[in-house]
Design a protein that fits this description.
It comes from Enhygromyxa salina. This is Long-chain-fatty-acid--CoA ligase. 32% of the residues lie in helices and 26% in strands. By secondary structure, it is α/β, with parallel strands linked by helices. It is built from 16 helices and 28 strands. It is globular, with a radius of gyration of 23 Å. A hairpin with a 5-residue loop joins strand 20 and strand 21. Adenosine monophosphate binds next to strand 14, strand 21 and strand 22.
């Protein structure tokens, strides 16, 4: 029986903490040979909470976590919840400036960082100018601060209270079209209610086992993966990073210990399919799974059909956003339609509107707006930007403007067509701001003007291309665009995360603009399709 089938109070947190509080002896996490039961996880999370409370961290304060996937990330999440602190997971690929912005913005009271992240963290702290020195906790030998393992020696005097349902749980940083990333503040009720609705629709239960190879700093891996699994007391087979062979090895004949559920971004399915084409034995292993889901970017109908032909698995595609959590999904029981993101998840609603804000009939594309039981409280310290995302209907309900273009198709299933703004790129399931990359590349001495676009790509969804108007004198550079691309990449690598790096270069004499001088990126995309790229990685 899954936790949410039992007799449970109306407090949503009771569902999230059920397996922990009961001290279940079943497997909670398996990671690189180490196994934690729910009882182990609970004891460690409580010790962690006690140790941080003893160090002076109070309810509502932010704890930044910057590390590769490991069990300590899971312990710190539940520990922060017991403490009443806000868990702020940060992409461990971020470089100094990206991290410094987050530190300065959220002013954390504590920082958990692994050894691999130390040097970037040191540089970011030097830039951030925090008003109060944060408590430092290090994961792994030689990391700065108290060793994470020593936190687990504390023994709490009494059981810590569960956090309040309306208390903030997570602050997840996400890119916008302009300016630096913003912290989306989500309460416990928002996360738990949305995840209960979604995973209920997907029929998750304690009998399932989830292979979790997604990063733990985004909604996909963290909210659906970690919270969804805890709600159902479902074991998680955690991977440090996505690896095709490792994922396949988790599946197989229905014996104890095998995985039943996999969640991935479309790029992961492309990699799996490339491998499965020549490996029928691997396909047979995945055929034993119960459920494969996809989200964070568009999954092509061709890929859906090929995966189904190879494994017999009909991927459940769903749609979401950091700010709203998961609002649309194909069902587990019922019709799944390839190339669609299904219908509203229970507790959510969706509509397509035109520029005047009027709802459009089925078949007509427009902006997707969603109503969600997981709608964030707002962006941290940005009330105006929060207000700009909202529409209030006649019944006083809040709707969120997603910026995605969609239409309603057959049987009321939603199709995502693209984004309203070309300045947001999705590559490998990561959201990337074109402006942020343009600002960095503009600092290259040979760049007179630059525009960054996302070019459609079968594997990555979109591939980042820098369109550059070179500064005079151009001689020499134009003869070797590959070298120019490499030097742009070198500049980029020092300042921004690797997945934001340009993979292609398009040289032009000027950037296309309309009569008012507004940049027309769609014309650049047409030109690239027509002329091809000058250099590619
Ligand atoms: C990496 N490479 C890329 C690339 N990223 N090439 C083109 N475009 C990109 N974006 C190249 C590298 O240079 C390298 O090349 C090779 O691919 C492998 O790099 P890697 O970094 O090792 O890749 P890998 O670890 O396999 O990463 C791929 C991935 C990762 C799909 C596992 O991108 C990932 O974890 N994505 C998930 C993001 C996510 O969780 N999004 C959720 C957001 S929440 P070479 O030549 O060196 O081999 C959200 C809401 C919702 O969106 O609805 O879920
Ligand atoms: P993020 O801000 O990283 O949470 O990304 C949210 C964005 O991911 C959405 O606004 C969409 O553009 C995109 N997205 C998520 N799921 C899907 C999907 N199934 N199909 C297409 N786009 C998706």
């Amino acid at each position: 029986m899954s936790n949410d089938e039992g007799n449970m109070s109306d407090d949503p947190t009771a569902h999230l903490f059920a397996a922990l509080e009961r001290g279940d002896s079943g497997l909670a996490y398996e990671f690189e040979g180490e196994r934690l039961t729910w009882a182990d996880l609970d004891a460690r999370a409580r010790s962690y909470a006690q140790a941080l409370a003893d160090a002076g961290i109070a309810k509502g304060e932010r704890v930044v976590v910057y590390a590769q996937t490991c069990l300590e990330l899971i312990i710190s999440l539940f520990g922060n919840y017991y403490l009443g602190a806000v868990h702020v997971p940060v992409n461990n690929r971020y470089r100094e400036a990206e991290l410094a912005h987050i530190l300065a913005d959220c002013q954390p009271s504590a920082i958990i960082c692994d050894r691999e992240g130390e040097s970037v963290m040191a540089g970011a702290l030097a830039q951030a100018g925090l008003t109060r020195a944060p408590v430092r906790v290090g994961i792994g030998d030689g990391a700065v601060g108290a060793g994470f393992a020593t936190l687990l020696d504390s023994s709490p005097d009494q059981a810590p209270p569960r956090p309040g349902a309306r208390d903030p749980a997570l602050m997840i940083y996400t890119s916008g079209t302009t300016g630096p990333s913003k912290g989306a503040l989500l309460s416990h009720a928002q996360v738990i209610n949305n995840m209960r609705a979604l995973t209920g629709l997907w029929t998750w239960s304690s009998r399932d086992r989830l292979v979790l190879a997604l990063p733990l700093f985004h909604v996909h891996g963290l909210c659906i993966g970690v919270h969804g699994a805890a709600i159902h007391g479902m074991a998680v087979l955690l991977e440090r990073r996505f690896d095709v062979a490792a994922v396949i090895e988790r599946f197989g004949e229905h014996e104890r210990g095998r995985a039943s559920v996999f969640m991935g971004v479309p790029t992961m399915y492309t990699s799996l399919v490339e491998h499965l084409r020549s490996n029928p034995a691997a396909a047979a292993k995945l055929a034993c799974g119960r459920m494969f889901t996809s989200g964070s970017a568009a999954l092509s109908a061709d890929l859906w059909h090929e995966f189904a032909a190879l494994t017999g698995q009909r991927i459940i595609e769903r749609y979401g956003m950091t700010e709203t959590l998961i609002t649309l999904s194909n069902p587990y029981v019922g019709v799944r339609i390839a190339g669609t993101v299904g219908q509203p998840v229970p507790g959510c609603d969706a509509a397509v509107i035109d520029d005047a804000g009027d709802e459009l009939p089925p078949g007509e594309p427009g902006e997707l707006i969603v109503h969600s039981n997981g709608l964030m409280d707002g962006y941290w310290n940005l009330p105006q930007q929060t207000a700009a995302t909202r529409v209030i209907d006649r019944d006083g309900r809040f709707w969120f403007r997603t910026g995605d273009v969609a239409y309603v198709g057959d049987q009321g299933y939603f199709h995502i067509v693209g984004r309203k703004s070309v300045d947001i790129i999705k590559s490998g399931g990561f959201k990337i701001s074109a402006r942020e990359i343009e600002e960095v590349l503009a600092g290259h001495p040979i760049v007179h003007e630059v525009a960054v676009v996302g070019v459609p790509d079968e594997k990555w969804g979109q591939k980042i291309v820098a369109c550059v108007v070179p500064d005079a004198p151009m001689a020499g550079i134009l003869d070797d665009p590959g070298q120019l691309l490499e030097s742009l990449v070198a500049l980029h690598r020092a300042l921004l995360a690797d997945y934001k790096q340009p993979r292609g270069l398009y040289l032009c004499d000027e950037l296309p603009r309309n009569a008012l001088g507004k940049l027309q990126k769609h014309r650049l995309l047409e030109a690239i399709e027509r002329d091809g790229l000058n250099a590619e990685l």
